[in-house]
Amino acid sequence: MRTLLPETGIKSSEKRTDSVNAEKDEISDEELLAGFGKGDEAAADRLIRRYRDRAYAVAWSMCDRDAEEAKEAVQDAFVKTLKNISKFRGQSSFYTWFYRILVNTCLDRRRKQRLRRKFFIFRSPEKREEGEENIAEEQADMSPASNPLAVLSGNEFGKEVHRALESLSEKQRTVFQLKVFHGMSIAEIAEVLHTAQGTVKSHLFRATQYLRENLKEWQDMKI
């Protein structure tokens, strides 16, 4: 089975430029998809390399900064994408179509993870695996140059933001993460979530207002 993810952590800048310049590759997504449709597995590998770093960054934040969950979510999303590639009609960009699959995969895993946590609290501390709680920080590259989440991850304010995000509704939290942490436009988020741009703006506004009201340091953050 092909390896979809790097062993190291987040290595992407969070801008869409990685979809075009990561390999300095002028071959379009459409050309690679056509090649894969003809049985060219190298074309699939190039698509995976083109998007996997940013996909991992998105999954890492959406899976509550759990590195293993993020890796498995991206793996699942790529498998689903390649398995269902014949269903891609070109009505949106491959970028948007793939991230819709990724986000839905992350949301499904996040719901299951929350259910597991309800049972996890009954486990005794000695039965928890050593280093379990810090796996994301240990495996992810949290330097500011590699990921904007680094600004929030290494300090107490970052922990407050994470706790506040957990208080948002699922839709508000997802919109906020995609817009603020991953630099997606309102139009891109609307396509990925398959909803109206006005709805995205509403969720973003409510999420931002909640964070401003509940985080005293939020006034210094720019969206």
Q: Strands, helices and their partners?
A:
Blueprint: H1 18-21, H2 29-37, H3 41-62, H4 67-83, H5 94-120, H6 135-139, H7 150-153, H8 156-166, H9 170-181, H10 186-193, H11 197-214
Helix pairs in contact: 2-3, 3-4, 3-5, 4-5, 5-10, 9-11, 10-11
Which terms summarize this structure?
Arc Repressor Mutant, subunit A, mainly alpha, Rna Polymerase Sigma Factor, Chain: A, 223 residues
Note the overall shape. Answer: globular
Q: Characterize the biggest β-sheet.
A: none
Structural class: mainly alpha
Give the CA-CA distance, first to last residue: 41 Å
The total of beta strands comes to: 0
User: Averaging pLDDT over every residue, what do you get?
Assistant: 75
CATH architecture of the largest domain: Orthogonal Bundle
Total domain count: 2
Low-pLDDT segments: 5-24, 124-148
SSE pattern, N- to C-terminal: HHHHHHHHHHH
Question: Describe it for me?
Answer:
By secondary structure, the protein is mostly helical. It has two domains: 8-141, Rna Polymerase Sigma Factor, Chain: A (Orthogonal Bundle); 155-223, Arc Repressor Mutant, subunit A (Orthogonal Bundle), CATH 1.10.10. Helix content is 61%, strand content 0%. It has helices at 18-21, 29-37, 41-62, 67-83, 94-120, 135-139, 150-153, 156-166, 170-181, 186-193, 197-214. The protein starts with 17 loop residues before the first helix and ends in a 9-residue tail after the last helix. The relative contact order is 0.12.
